[in-house]
Amino acid sequence: MSKHSTLKSFVDGLEDDFSKFFEKGNKAAGTRVRKAMQDLKKMAQDIRVEVQDKKNG
């Protein structure tokens, strides 16, 4: 369950940058959001692989 907690904390931590970008138009926050989304994609892929391995193993 630790991956779930890590993922949830990561997403919760992005709220400030999302707000700064979408509500205030802060371009630097947009860059941080884009990077975070790339990191989130990697985390999601790692979790998918782990789930698949456990399912098949």
Provide an overview of this structure:
With 57 residues, the chain is mostly helical. It has one domain (2-51). The protein is 89% helix and 0% strand. Helix 1 runs antiparallel to helix 3 and helix 2 packs across helix 3 (27-56). The two termini are 18 Å apart. The mean pLDDT is 95.
Quick rundown:
The chain has 57 residues and is mainly α.
Features:
57 residues, mainly alpha, 3 helices, 0% strand
What is the helix fraction of residues, given as a range? over 70%
Distance between the termini: 18 Å
* Biggest beta-sheet profile: none
The percentage of residues in β strands lies in under 5%
Topology of this structure?
Blueprint: H1 2-12, H2 15-24, H3 27-56
Helix pairs in contact: 1-3, 2-3
